[in-house]
Amino acid sequence: MAGGFERSPNITGRDRPIRRAAPLIANMRWIRLRLLVLILVPAAVLHVVLTQNDFGASPDSVAYLTAAQTIERDKMIASPLPPPTGLVIGAGSPQRAARIEGPGGRALYPLTHWPPGYPVIVSIVMSGFRTPPMMSARIVSIISSGVILLLAVLLLRSAL
User: Fold this and answer.
1) DSSP string, 77-126
2) Which of 25, 53, 106, 113 could anchor a disulfide with 102, C-beta 3.0 to 4.6 Å?
3) How many CB atoms sit inside 10 A of residue 85's CB?
4) Nearest to 144 by CA among 32, 47, 48
5) What is the DSSP letter of 14?
6) Residue 110 contacts by C-beta under 8 Å, 6 or more apart in sequence?
7) How far is CA 137 from CA 49, 55, 125, in A?
8) 150: buried, middle or exposed (CB in 10 Å: 19+, 13-18, 0-12)?
9) Helix H or strand E segment including 68
10) How far is residue 18's CA from residue 76's CA, in Å, rounded to a whole number?
11) Nearest to 69 by CA among 102, 54, 77, 56
12) Contacts (Cβ under 8 Å, ≥6 apart) of 10
């Protein structure tokens, strides 16, 4: 056996080299790591360049981030902020937003005006990395940009 190959007879009776799986698997891991770096580094650089002055917090993003804090801290899909109009569209006519009492007597409003997916993901990052909401939102943004770049590369690769 030399150079990671061993000899084995094939159907014709001649010896043929058989490549061992371990070096191939290690090589695939290295390729995946390089691909991950090649996708996430441009995503992070793009994010830093675009948000170098400020992350940009709109009223909607404040609602999302406070909802993420509430999800992480209180384990409730709610926000301390009422919907922007103070009303929720019900069956037939607008109704007042439901107010519930959270831990410690805090007023909370169920997250019915905005979709809960983004605050849930941000709260998972907050719990996993022990970061504040704005930093967690940046991490989610970088990972999302990386996934979009990866999908674009795969799409272009399949089209060629």
Assistant:
1) SEESSPPTTSEEE-SSSEEEPP-EE-GGG-EEEES-SS-SHHHHHHHHHH
2) 106
3) 10
4) 47
5) -
6) 77, 78, 98, 100
7) 16, 9, 8
8) middle
9) helix 59-74
10) 57
11) 77
12) 16
Residue 114: name the closest of 148, 88, 145, 152 by CA: 88
List of residues 6+ apart from 96 with CB closer than 8 A: 86, 87, 88
pLDDT of 1-33, one tens digit each? 555 555 555 555 555 555 555 555 566 677 777
HSE on the CB side for 39, CA within 13 Å? 18
Can you give the pLDDT at residue 63?
87
Instruction: Give the tens place of pLDDT for each residue, 43-100.
Output: 788 777 877 766 667 778 888 999 999 999 999 999 888 877 655 555 555 566 677 8
Strands (E), 20-93: 78-79, 87-89
Number of neighbours of residue 121 by Cβ within 10 angstroms? 18
